[in-house]
Amino acid sequence: MADNLFEGLPPPSRQQEEREQEQQQEQQHQRSKTATTGGGSSSSSPVPAPKPVLKSALKRSEPTESKPEASVPEKRLRFKTTTDASEKQVIEAMQKIASHIKNPSKFGKASKLAIQLIQAGSVKPGTSDHFFAILEAAMSSSTSCMDPSVRADYHALFLAAQDAQECLNKKQKNQLTTWMIRAVDANDLHTDDSFVFSKTAGRIKEAISNLPVAAEDDDREEAAALKDETELTYEDGQSKQEISFVAPSEENEEEEESDPFGLDAFMSSSVNKGGKTKEKKVAAARMKEEVEENKRFIRSQREALIICLEIAARRYKTPWCQTVIDILVKQAYDNVGRFTSRQRDAIEKLWASIREQHARRKQGKSVTGKLDVNAFEWLQQKYSTEKISIRHSVGASGDRRAQQWLG
């Protein structure tokens, strides 16, 4: 038996099957006619059946869908965007960045490397102290963050540092909040975007409202801090060593005067046993440290907010800044009790200057003292002296010497 020639070919279409059926019916009809006319002679050979017409698979109207036996997963091209580095390598990189970020000429490159470490997730509890050292080195000078050449880099660095503040302790978070006012809010006040300026002024107003009311202790502490800074500025290293050496002896003298016979130690050891006195001292020292840290944080916040108010006041010559600055300085003046005595004097002088300039604006004068005239007022003043005629044709100066042509 011969092999099937049509094995493996696609099945014929429905039209082709109908056509083949019609041909087979015609052939059967012809056979029946020849059988009746030929008298049933056995010499006539049967007519062979026509071969079915093959149809190319390229001409199929409805191609059959071939189902794959097994689904092959697609291969995707992926690039490696992060580099796995050990904690030791990250610490070495942070130390190198901290050594270069103090230099203003290298600050741009160093700050970008620090931002890459933040984005790569390299700031962890084990490396947070070294990362904070980078920020501390960047803010070693209080005025460096407001330098126009590196202002944008400071802004980007401390905005990115907010993503890593969860790894910092409470003291470091407080310091970062103060640095954010100096590096972000103060630099945003130099913007040319009115929306950003208004939004920054809103953050400063909120920070002023959140300050506690200043007390006399705050004034004394501020005066002492300023005195210490002045002494540290003008004293040499030898005098500093002498002061640090004399201080412990004074403390020992005070302790001897309060307890000349040493009875306090004897009483505490006899009454409190099991180291309870030591635990109380540790808890008291910790509580005192937290109180001092809170005072230091509030003091640094006040200083940073005063800097922002001074920067905003310098921009009062810009017309679209004036209304926002009026509201901002008025907010600070209404909450002047939240600042120390020295800062209160600065705010009152600032408010007096802003109020004077605001009065000039109401009189139609600009900040420089000249009349502040807009385009409409200038045109109004120009055409107020012109002679205007109701006729269509007038002279060059409006003297109605027009020539009327008749005819």
Care to describe what's here?
The protein is mainly α. It has a domain at 87-188. The chain is built from 14 helices and no strands. The chain has helices spanning 14-37, 87-100, 107-119, 128-138, 151-161, 170-188, 194-209, 216-234, 237-258, 263-271, 276-314, 322-334, 341-362, 375-383. Helix 2 packs antiparallel against helix 3 (107-119) and helix 6 (170-188) packs antiparallel against helix 7. The radius of gyration is 46 Å and the shape is flat. The N and C termini lie far apart (119 Å).
**The biggest beta sheet, please?**
none
Beta-strand percentage range: under 5%
Form type: flat
Structural class: mainly alpha
Number of strands: 0
Percent of residues in helices: 55-70%
Topology as H/E string?
A: HHHHHHHHHHHHHH
Number of helices: 14
Uncertain residue segments: 40-44, 236-251
Intertermini distance: 119 Å
Mean pLDDT rating: 75
Estimated radius of gyration? 46 Å
List keywords for this structure.
mainly alpha; single chain; 0% strand; 407 residues
Please specify the SSE layout and strand pairing.
Blueprint: H1 14-37, H2 87-100, H3 107-119, H4 128-138, H5 151-161, H6 170-188, H7 194-209, H8 216-234, H9 237-258, H10 263-271, H11 276-314, H12 322-334, H13 341-362, H14 375-383
Helix pairs in contact: 2-3, 2-4, 3-5, 5-6, 6-7, 6-11, 7-12, 11-13, 12-13
